[in-house]
């Protein structure tokens, strides 16, 4: 095998300069090293929406329910459940003999504490609370039984309980250590315990032998936060990491990686979709005609073919094929530059008008996509410039505060595999990811489907939301990208998951 030694040496030197690379590969028995592109900054379940949080925290925490790689919902910390009162009360029967990683017992009080906290002042500080808005209260029936009272039925709630804000946390530990300490020293009931965390550098998990599901087969998992994709790939090729998780692998590097006899590229269909959303509040993109013109003006299929190497599929709304609510008969607006120019002329947009596209600076593949979009927009008479931001700055400051340019990158995992989890956050008035738009008719549609348990009726409403938002051109839908993992061949029993929520209890290493 021939390798580009000069390029790789430069990349490895960069990694060393950044303090990201050990001087030589060194593994304890049963140690898996993972490259993750982002440090979420807090390990509290109520603080985050990030897939990179969940790819770690799925090993630290458990929820009442669990959804594995096959997308099927199964019992987690609740061994079973029953619905009463027309779906407004759910009784959970809890596993007995379960402990948190500090020895604190898991019981009904811990469940009540978790949801009181999520729906209270602490949860109000983070982005997860509205995901669980149907929960009115949690009532302790006995030590191993709780009733969850809802304001209205929520057909997606059991899936939501399998992730993010619903992860069960230890009441005594948080009371003793405080919220700030918990952010950096999380404790859960999961199969691995965090034993060290260095912000922006990495963290280490060790097996929790007393996990209720049995001890993991690995003794240690090390995560390194490597934001630069080429550096992560170089480290994989050098043997310093065993697994590179999405969305890090640049599509253009896949052929080179596949030439390496020590590495596999493993892909699976994912729920992750990409779009360039529009600033509908001000500037030329406040005009629906302009937004549609920009969509007509970009050949998205050509971008998929030329830049993404066929590892994606076009989308007509901001969801992929795995999403409940996707309408397979719905087609994207076609590439039609003549129509685009005519719409811009109708809207009174002068040729050469400048627009700004905001993107995540560490996403090499999307940077190429954005450059292609800018070139297509140039053809129809718009002068597009690209402004890269550090990911956390874009997500936590620029977008929520409504400080973007005309377009901004939005990628979304839709981890519940239900369009509600995307659409409500993207389009409902007042939500973090909707800084510009307020549409009472759309709000009504979004709210109406949340209380409907009839799947067919609810799917019809979700599909109508997809058509409505496409008609208003609230974003330029781009593509549904496969989940792409770079995996060392020393890793065994690894199963790629659609949403990157990796549960690593069965993984081993040679």
Automatic annotation (TrEMBL):
InterPro entries: Peptide/Ni-bd, SBP_5, SBP_5_dom. Its main location: periplasm. Residues 72-432 form the Solute-binding protein family domain. It comes from the Bacteria. Gene3D superfamilies: Dipeptide-binding Protein, Domain 1, Dipeptide-binding Protein, Domain 3, Periplasmic binding protein-like II. Keywords: Signal. It is found in: Periplasm. It holds the Pfam family SBP_bac_5. Residues 1-28 form the signal peptide. Belongs to the bacterial solute-binding protein 5 family. This is Peptide ABC transporter substrate-binding protein. It comes from Thalassospira permensis NBRC 106175.
């Amino acid at each position: 095998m021939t390798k580009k030694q000069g390029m790789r040496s430069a990349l490895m030197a960069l990694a060393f300069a950044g303090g990201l690379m050990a001087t030589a590969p060194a593994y304890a028995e049963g140690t898996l090293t993972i490259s993750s592109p982002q440090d979420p900054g807090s390990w509290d379940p109520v603080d985050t929406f990030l897939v990179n949080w969940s790819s770690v925290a799925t090993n630290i925490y458990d929820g009442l329910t669990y959804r594995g790689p096959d997308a099927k919902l199964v019992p987690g910390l609740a061994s079973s459940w029953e619905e009463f009162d027309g779906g407004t009360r759910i009784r959970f029967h809890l596993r007995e003999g379960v402990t948190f990683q500090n020895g604190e017992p898991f019981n009904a009080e811990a469940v009540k504490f978790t949801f009181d906290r999520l729906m209270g002042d602490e949860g109000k500080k983070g982005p997860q609370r509205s995901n669980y808005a149907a929960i009115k209260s949690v009532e302790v029936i006995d030590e191993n039984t709780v009733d969850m009272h809802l304001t209205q039925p929520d057909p997606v709630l059991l899936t939501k309980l399998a992730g993010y804000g619903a992860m069960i946390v230890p009441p005594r530990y948080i009371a003793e250590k405080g919220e700030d300490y918990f952010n950096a020293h999380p404790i859960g009931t999961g199969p691995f315990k965090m034993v060290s965390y260095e912000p922006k550098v990495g963290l280490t998990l060790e097996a929790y032998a007393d996990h209720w599901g049995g001890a993991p087969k690995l003794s240690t998992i090390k995560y390194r936060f490597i934001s630069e994709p080429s550096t992560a790939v170089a480290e994989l090729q050098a043997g310093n990491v065993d697994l590179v998780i999405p969305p890090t692998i640049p599509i253009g590097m896949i052929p080179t990686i596949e030439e390496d006899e020590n590495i596999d590229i493993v892909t699976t269909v994912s729920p992750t979709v990409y779009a360039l959303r529009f600033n509908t509040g001000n500037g030329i993109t406040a005009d629906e005609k302009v937004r549609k013109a920009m969509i007509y003006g970009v050949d998205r299929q050509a971008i998929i073919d030329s830049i993404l190497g066929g590892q994606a599929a076009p989308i007509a709304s901001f969801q992929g094929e795995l999403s409940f609510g996707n309408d397979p008969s719905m087609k994207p607006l076609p590439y039609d530059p003549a129509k685009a120019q005519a719409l811009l002329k109708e809207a009174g947009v002068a040729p050469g008008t400048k627009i700004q596209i905001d993107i995540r600076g560490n996403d090499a593949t999307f940077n190429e996509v954005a450059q292609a979009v800018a070139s297509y927009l140039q053809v129809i008479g718009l002068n597009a410039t690209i402004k890269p931001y550090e990911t956390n700055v874009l997500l936590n400051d620029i977008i929520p505060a409504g400080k973007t340019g005309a377009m901004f990158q939005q990628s979304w995992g839709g981890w519940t595999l239900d369009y509600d989890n995307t659409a409500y956050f993207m389009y409902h008035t007042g939500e973090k990811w909707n800084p510009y738009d307020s549409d009472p008719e759309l709000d009504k549609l979004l709210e109406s489907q949340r209380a409907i348990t009839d799947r067919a009726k609810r799917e019809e409403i979700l599909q109508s939301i997809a058509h409505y938002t496409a008609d208003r051109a609230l974003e330029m839908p781009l593509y549904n990208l496969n989940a792409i993992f770079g995996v060392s061949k020393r890793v065994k029993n690894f199963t790629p998951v659609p949403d990157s929520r990796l549960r690593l209890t069965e993984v081993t290493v040679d």
